[in-house]
Design brief:
Largest sheet of chain A: 5 strands, mixed
Strand content of chain A: 15-25%
CATH superfamily of the largest domain in chain A: Alpha-helical ferredoxin
Chains: A alpha+beta, B mainly alpha, C mainly alpha
Oligomer: heterotrimer
CATH architecture of chain C: Up-down Bundle
Shape of chain A: elongated
Distance between the termini of chain A: 60 Å
Number of strands of chain A: 7
Order of helices and strands of chain A: EEHEEEEEHHHHHHH
Largest sheet of chain C: none
Distance between the termini of chain C: 36 Å
CATH class of the largest domain in chain A: Mainly Alpha
Shape of chain C: elongated
Number of helices of chain A: 8
Structural class of chain C: mainly alpha
Radius of gyration of chain A: 20 Å
CATH superfamily of chain C: Fumarate reductase/succinate dehydrogenase, transmembrane subunit
Strand content of chain C: under 5%
Structural class of chain A: alpha+beta
CATH topology of the largest domain in chain A: Fumarate Reductase Iron-sulfur Protein, Chain B, domain 2
Number of domains of chain A: 2
Strand order of the largest sheet of chain A: 2-1-5-3-4
């Protein structure tokens, strides 16, 4: 079953005009097609200058995150049949826009780097890999599924106001290594995320959980980090 | 289009706004009460507070206290380890609790005055 | 971390403190907050202790909250610095006057 949809897209073309504008495109889409299919059709048939990021188109790479009808989501994972006839599309909030729906993610990835996003273990490595039990793997399983699309961090009202805040994505990454039984850098990692603009700036708003395309309960993970930090604080250190 | 509100962000917003209101009220509250040196000044203030408009103001302030308290209890319970799966029911429960307590206590409060 | 934890602890203290405060001041009749009644209560040392703890908890809780707002919303460095000073000085003044009236009436 096909139906006409109006795509109202926030455009920003710095070489044409320093200010942004809204463009409307009317296209026919099958009910099982996604917002990304609509964007591709518009770019191919109606306006070749429309700019957006896409890669895998199957909810794995995380590059087509954008604000669709007031909520951050992946364009490749959002079916048009679940949306009203008028579909409003904007770039991810609070990051600098480069062109149309493409935002500058530098700040986002800087936050990620801040939490030492790699396994730290100075013990001599075993002959093959460092083995982890299934139970231990389950502790971090949910956090590992993050695709770093940026939906969560740019949905967070604290991050909108405070660009120094680490944000849900970086904190989730911190969790992934803090609770990895093979990782030995708990103290130095905690030190990096418990500052003024770190984990204590999370106010359990749950905007990040609402938008995560992988349905990760990010707030749950951040709360666990808080409890770990308090526990470590009582044991000394901090 | 504005970013869509949801349960958690609304709870956070009212928690913030009531928190700011209460802190500024606290400043006034402590400052005024700590500068009452004699019974006549005290009684003068108490009579002034009997003004119906101020009574309504006090009821609104009481609502702010209740909202802030229950939003705070919700966040503290979640931080203490209660499942985040029930964050929304907790918020709705808080709204009901605030409404019931406000209406019941507000009734007794006004009875005392009139 | 400790400042954050103390914010939560003072929050819990305030819930119980407020409960007591409201019942006493608003739901037990007029005479409970007459000048004489307040002064009579203030002569009890335990009441003084309760009041001082209540005062400290409320002031800390409120100003820690405002400090968070400054951290998140005020970007201009000089203004931020000024607000940080105010957030230290104003509560100290409040605690000074509060304790003074509780201890020496």
């Amino acid at each position: 079953m096909s139906k006409f949809y109006t795509f109202r897209i926030k455009r920003y073309l710095p070489e044409e005009s320093p200010s942004s504008r809204w463009d409307e495109f009317r296209i026919k889409l099958e009910s099982m097609e996604r917002v990304l299919d609509g964007l591709i059709k518009i770019k191919e048939n109606l306006d070749g200058t429309l700019t957006f990021r896409k890669s895998c188109a199957h909810g794995v790479c995380g590059s087509c995150a954008m604000k669709i009808n007031g909520l951050n989501r992946l364009a490749c994972q959002t079916l048009v049949k679940d949306l009203p006839e008028l579909i409003e599309i904007e770039p991810l909030p609070s990051l600098p826009v480069i062109k149309d729906l493409v935002v500058d993610m530098t700040l986002f990835f800087e936050k990620n780097d801040r939490v030492l996003p790699y396994l730290i273990n100075d013990d001599p490595p075993p002959e093959r890999e460092r083995i982890q039990s299934q139970e231990d793997q389950h502790k971090i399983l949910e956090s590992i599924t993050c695709i770093m699309c940026g939906s969560c961090t740019t949905s967070c009202p604290v991050f909108w106001a405070d660009k120094e805040y680490l944000g849900p994505s970086a904190l989730l990454k911190a969790y992934r290594f803090l609770f990895d039984t093979r990782d030995k850098a708990t103290d130095s990692r905690l030190e990096r995320i418990t500052g003024e603009h770190g984990v204590w700036r999370c106010h359990s708003i749950f905007n990040c959980v609402e938008v995560c395309p992988k349905e990760i309960d990010i707030t749950k993970h951040i709360l666990k980090i808080k409890r770990l930090a308090v526990k470590k604080g009582f044991k000394g250190g901090d | 289009m504005r970013y869509r509100w949801n349960t958690g962000s609304l709870a956070w917003l009212v928690h913030r706004i009531t928190g700011v209101i209460l802190t500024f009220y606290l400043i006034a509250h402590i400052f005024v009460l700590s500068h009452l040196k004699n019974p006549s000044a005290y009684d003068q203030l108490m009579n002034f507070m009997k003004n119906p408009i101020l009574k309504i103001g006090e009821l609104l302030l009481f609502a702010a206290v209740l909202i802030h308290v229950f939003a705070g209890i919700r966040i503290t319970l979640l931080e203490a380890g209660l499942s985040t799966k029930i964050q929304k029911p907790l918020a709705y429960l808080g709204v009901v609790a605030v409404a019931v307590i406000w209406i019941v206590c507000g009734f007794f409060f006004l009875m005392e005055v009139f | 971390m400790w400042s954050w934890l103390l914010h939560r602890i003072t929050g819990v203290i305030l819930v119980f403190g407020l409960l007591y405060h409201f019942i006493l001041m608003h739901f037990m009749g007029h005479n409970n907050y007459s000048y004489e009644a307040v002064m009579a209560r203030l002569s009890d040392p335990w009441w003084k202790v309760f009041n001082i703890i209540f005062l400290l908890a409320a002031v800390y809780h409120g100003f820690y909250g405002l400090n968070g707002l400054v951290t998140e919303y005020i970007r201009e460095r000089p203004l931020r610095k000024l607000m940080r000073y105010l957030i230290i000085i104003v509560p100290m003044i409040l605690v000074f006057f509060g304790i003074k009236i509780v201890l020496f009436n």
